[in-house]
Amino acid sequence: MQFKEIVAQEEAKQQLLQMVNTGRLPHALLLIGQEGCGQLAMALALAQYVLCQQRTKNEPCGICQACLKSSKWIHPDIHFSFPTIGTNSKSDQFLEQWRTLLGEHPYFSAFDWFQHIGAENKQGNINKEECLNVFKKLSLKTFESEYKVLIMWMPEYLGKEGNRLLKLIEEPTENTFFILVAERSELILNTILSRCQLVKLNLLDDDTIIKSLEKRGVPTTKASKIAPLANGNFNEAIKLSKQADNDNSLLFLDWMRKCYKGNGIEMVNWVERFASMGREHQKFFLQYALHFMREYLCFFVTDDLARLRLGEAEQQTAVKFKAIINFKQIEEIVNLLNDLTFYIERNASPKLLLLDASLQINKLLKNKRD
Same domain for 211 and 334? Predict the structure, then answer.
């Protein structure tokens, strides 16, 4: 992967390029940022740049044998370690699935990965056997390049097993680089954090997401609707772009009206309609609902429509909501939507979930009216 393929993150790119070009790339590097920022993409580009035989000041050449192998994730001197399922499983057993998912895009989440390998309800981790396998890989001489690189994705899943790697991270074998790719530093052992140099990646702004989606062939009007929903997460933006066009704002407003009226037949009919949609569509509807409630909360506090990332029709809905939904009810509805998202992702019955949620929202709104 080349640096130019990474969405934004120019500051982090220049920082890493300067490290390599001045011979100051640390043996242990931690790339950290929230989901969808591009940490894994950055790690892949950095590894290819380090091993490239004809690199320029800003990019790997993309045509040498090292680059060709790196771009297909088959270079023998680039090793991968990531969470898997099973007590004694190792990353090497899942490399085919790993390369397949990387081929789609390198912005995927841990949830996407576990879904891809069929984890279902099994707990993912980086276990003892994987740590021992890392030792084995890095104890070998390089195969084709001067350097060898280990990319460890989601070291949060190491837990206490991370203690096994402390000595190796602190004093790696010659010409070895660790690149850790993480989202939540608080889940990583402090002893590991203290041995790594940190490079932070930022969430993407709406304009960047819109332009990046346009490059992927997404129409501007659709990309403009997706960007606020993605909240800086390019992984979510890509998922949203693959959904058929739909107007979740009208669907959400219709649901709120039916909850407010409390007509059982109408609520059941709405739930039937929701249940007929695909699971991904259901998830994105709930994501839109959370986005709307966040913006409505901003309006509730500031009374400033101009600051909202909502369309004109949605803004008028927010104005109408102010007479119906108060601050406490916003919190309860948001918690309910978060719970719905959690259970929908885990294949719970959408009919039961949404009917129960509709009744709960009706009760909330009825208490306000009473």
Answer: no
As given in the structure block, the two tokens for residue 104 are 């789609």
The residue with tokens 């704002």 is 249
Q: Give whole-number Cα distances, 97 to 94, 113, 173, in Å.
A: 5, 9, 29
Q: What is the pLDDT along the chain (370 residues), one digit of tens a residue?
A: 999 999 999 999 999 999 999 999 999 999 999 999 999 999 999 999 999 999 999 999 999 999 999 999 999 999 999 999 988 899 999 999 999 999 999 999 998 999 899 887 688 999 999 999 999 999 989 999 999 999 999 999 998 899 999 988 988 888 999 999 999 999 999 999 999 999 999 999 999 999 999 999 999 988 988 898 888 999 989 988 887 655 788 899 899 999 999 999 999 999 999 998 877 778 878 988 998 999 999 999 999 988 887 777 788 888 988 888 999 999 999 999 999 999 988 889 999 999 999 999 999 988 765 5
Q: Do 29 and 173 fall within a single domain?
A: yes
Tokens coding 356: 């129960």
Question: Could you tell me if 342 and 290 are in contact, meaning their C-beta atoms sit under 8 angstroms apart?
Answer: no
- Considering just the CA atoms, what is the radius of gyration of the chain in Å? 24
DSSP β-ladder status, 124-125 and 78-81: unpaired
Backbone angles phi, psi at 116, to 5 degrees: -65, -35
pTM comes to 0.79
Residue 176: phi and psi, rounded to 5, are -120, 135
Distance between CA 102 and CA 197 in Å, rounded?
Answer: 25
Same domain, 336 and 254: yes
Q: Could you tell me which residues come within 8 angstroms of residue 133 by beta carbon, excluding any fewer than 6 positions away?
A: 81, 90, 91, 92
Q: Rounded distance, CA 146 to CA 135, Å?
A: 19
Q: Are residues 188 and 211 located together in one domain of the fold? A: no
- SS3 call for 189: coil
Burial class of residue 138 in the structure, from the number of CB atoms within 10 Å of its CB (0-12 exposed, 13-18 middle, 19+ buried): middle
Q: Are both 180 and 230 inside the same structural domain?
A: no
Q: Are residues 115 and 83 in the same domain?
A: yes
Count how many domains the chain has.
Answer: 3
